[in-house]
Amino acid sequence: xxxxxxxxxxxxxxxxxxxxxxPRPDGYHGLVTVFHAVxxxxxxxxxxxxxxxxxxxxxxxxxxxxxxxxxxxxAVRALRQAMARRAAGxxxxxxxxxxxxxxGGAGGVAVTIAKRIxxxxxxxxxxxxxxxxxxxxxxLWGAGLSPQELCxxxxxxxxxxxxxxxxxxAVGRGRGEQLAPALVSPVDFHWVLAFADGHLSTPxxxxxxxxxxxxxxxxxxxxxxxxxxxxxxxxxxxLGATLSNDLQEPALTLFPALRKTLDAGLEAGARGALxxxxxxxxxxxxxxxxxxxxxxxxxxxxxxxxSVATAAGPVPGAWVVS
Length: 322
Ligand code: C5P
Hints:
Helix content: 25-40%
Bound molecules: cytidine-5'-monophosphate
Shape: globular
Number of helices: 10
Order of helices and strands: EEEHEHHHEEEHHHEHHEEHEE
Radius of gyration: 20 Å
């Protein structure tokens, strides 16, 4: 059957640990992070069209560029380039050995993004859309790239764009794009997400961190053994106690109202509370689904955020829904 459109569902992430090293010569920071995919999803549809276009609907749609800067369209272009390199047998992320016919990618694609993941919220929403566009075009064009090859292309698009392909719980190194699945207990964890009334720019938060550390020796980041042990044991109390994020202090400096959000969740009985990634979304760990609902109600009532949602994790990475 000739496929003319493909829809992919892709999860948001939170960082259970985000340890940031000193700035590198290329302007990025070396990281050790523990990504965790949660049940808050964007849906990305790609359809064959004469020229590339992107339309965004849903949560925060007005803030997402509907032009070539859109991360999903950047991913589409990166995939075309990777396919062209492969067809030419040229070296690149796919390697010279993978030369086969590239059957698709010549015409345009109309990308439609239905957003639920907050924009500029520290949950890698744009990266998730890029990852979903890669999976969708790989299917639409019958390109046949392996998950590893798609991860390599995603890493070119953004530091966080490879993880939504993998999903689950994974350790990220380098800029965050070098991934290894983490060994975790098969239990679900239950989270409450507090979406802020505002946004934070990731580069601005990294710059604020560098400023706060200006006169200090910054060690290379290290994976938290305590956090990994809590994940292996499925131990909610220890997981809550070992969540950490080096970007939290700079995010709080740039967005001081988040302190009240974190405090309100802890006062309401959250087992852990943290800014997600570069913020401003805050997340809270609950004991079970009923406790998550109680926390969500308490946070809503406290008036310390724009809206709240409950989510479970880990969930799988991007998958084709139709
Ligand atoms: O790779 P991505 O476009 O998602 O990164 C956005 C920005 O966040 C980068 O331009 C950089 O300023 C900052 N960043 C960083 N170190 C990382 C990841 C991102 O400094 N490991």
